[in-house]
Amino acid sequence: MERDTADETALELLVHGVGGTTPAAMLGDPRTVRVSGDDTAAVYRRADDADAEARPDDYRGKPVPEAYVWCNLTSGNGSRALWLLLLPFMVVNLAHWMRPNAHRRTRTVRAYGLLVRLVGLSLTVLLVAAACEVALDLVAWQCAGTHACAEERSWLGFLSVDAHGHGGWWSQPGRRLALAAAVPAALVGLLWYLSHRTWGAYESQQPLPHQPDPEEEAPTNALGRPGFWYGRRLVARLRAAHTAAGLLTVAAAVGTSAARFDRGSGGPVLLDVLGRILDGALVVGTGIVVWVVCRRGRSENTVDRTLDRTVVRLLPAAALTLLLLTFLYAGWSRPEWRSYGRLPGDATFGGIVLVQGAVVVALAVVAHAIHRRARDSRVALRGLGGPATAMLACALGGVMSGGVSQRVADWLDGSGTPGADGTIEGPPVLLSWQASVIPPLLIVVAVVCAVLAQRTIRLKRRETATVATDYPGEPEDAARTSAIAGTRARAALTDQAPMIIGAVSTVTLLLGAGALTGAWATHQVPGQAALGTYDIVEGAAQTAQAMGSWLIGLGFILFVTWGRRAYRDASARRTIGILWDVGTFWPRAAHPFAPPCYAERAVPDLTWRMATWTRATGGRLVLSGHSQGSVLAAAAAWQLHPTVRRRVALLTYGSPLERLYGRWFPAHFGPAALGALHRQVDCWRNLHRTTDPIGGPVRLPGEDGPQVDHPALKDPLAYGRTEQHPLPAPILGHSDYQADPVFAEERARLLARLRPGVPGPRPDGEPAAPQGSSGKSSS
């Protein structure tokens, strides 16, 4: 049977990893052209290869290289610096995808997703409550209501009262609160805008039309389902609910204060009735928001383009209407009303912390129940990685909200002591308790780091003996051996991440419970609560309070400095982009205000490119992914039609598919999922090094393991100076896998396996492969 010469053409589609790179660096040629895509993400070729399909004879025995560059999805313009504010939302979204692998436990899986969404909702309320604490309590209520504080700040003059308690129209507390509420309301609007705009820029890409093969079973892995990378319905629904929750939080901060005064002042009955109606409307609105969040999760079996328009449109509009009515109610004249002390923030923040702790504990129970049915020794924290990560998201939210409140209070207070004459009371007591637990938490972190350092030293000693066997016949060089062994030992620290995260999250939960108990039991900051106790207790409490306040202030300053630098400096923005490369791979399933999922653009890009190229040329294709690019490559391969997937070879290197994703996201990258991927593509080869802190072997069970994993590459390539390496060879670690001769050998072996032709049957009922392919082994 004759074949067109175009059928012999092979394509190598390169996908880079974290941090990004340039097309010239990926293709090894400064002259590149864009063949598809835009300024955000695109496919490039060398200029000499632009018309490769028209010259197939020039590419016999070698592939046409293409580079898919997606780094601008995570580190583009300066607005990405604003994403630092969304860090807790990103972390809780990761917790959603860390669910243990479940077999026929639909209700438990739904309960897991529901609990994570509730944690995400609490984080939105916490962020908006922190903005209300600063704008309403510290500025409008305390400082503007204290003559000495407002006198030093002329911009508060129209809100303040004089020494005799007299002021202008805006000086009444209700009106001050209504005006200041514009700040947290604007924050909610900004979050809504960012979520809506980034959806159109990143996640609105249409996935490849997926027509199921009659001979193919329904995909067991969710990553292969048609609607996995298109979550418009859920994101829009959650965005409406979280926007409404934020607006209701602002309305509660303004309206309940006025309603409390009306109930206790003996004022007009009409205002008292309106206040009670307002409180009832807030309760009903809260119930509706919680119902909307709990009602629906992700739909992945089909591309769901339907929107819940009633929820998406009416819920935020109703919350905004209620907020405006609250402003009118609070702005009603109440000449007798005076602001003193604090707004009731302790109860608000305490309630949020209590709810978060209870939901995280419930999440841990559900995760343990799922993991118990399908135990896997490689899963991080025995299936509790999701609850631990959710706890860290709550801690991040608490630190960020507490840091802002503490810094603003210190700025308004000057050098005064909170509560003294002429000064403000400061933020809620609970925030001081939360800041005070930071020093003991850091002590725990230091202890864990010391244990890991000791383990690393012991591992380095063992690796020192191994280096000599890896480079036989080389003259011994103690410094060179120490450098290689040290690099290997430090690379192994990645496998200890569950220990760090588990310890930190557990201690955070316990210390948070202690801070909440102390704040509610004493109603005083730790230093004052410890007065009159043992000297050691009093000293420790005062030290923890002072150090905590200083540390949280330092963290806030570093956070602002980092964000400002990222806004101005592209290199710093690219460094922050590495964080987003890892954290925003997954769709927004738990929090709509999380940074956008770049994979909802990148995966359709790759699948469309592979499908259209194979359809047009009938050629062979090697999907070559480095680091995070290997994760995108695997996700794109799962989305391909079976007939296309069987014509694809997968080459991964420096890949975190098992080491990070398989351990932390077992439901989607566990052994069963990766084993199925190995059987569905034509062939797969994985390269790794012991010096690589990110990549590692795939570790498929049985005979599949050696077929996929190449033995660990030698790094460095030469111990000392040789004819091939007259200068000392560098220790490459996670970078430059293509410089290793094994890379070219394995790529050529994969291309040799991908013989074009009519697909033929595989033994044992395996998916068909093109005729001419050898067995599955590529060793």
TrEMBL record:
The chain crosses the membrane at residues 111-131, 177-194, 240-261, 273-294, 314-332, 347-367, 379-400, 431-453, 500-523, 543-563. The keyword Iron-sulfur does not apply. Keywords: Membrane, Transmembrane, Transmembrane helix. It comes from the Bacteria. Residues 752-779 are annotated as: Disordered. The keyword Membrane applies. This is Integral membrane protein. It comes from Streptomyces aureus. The lineage of its organism: Bacteria, Bacillati, Actinomycetota, Actinomycetes, Kitasatosporales.
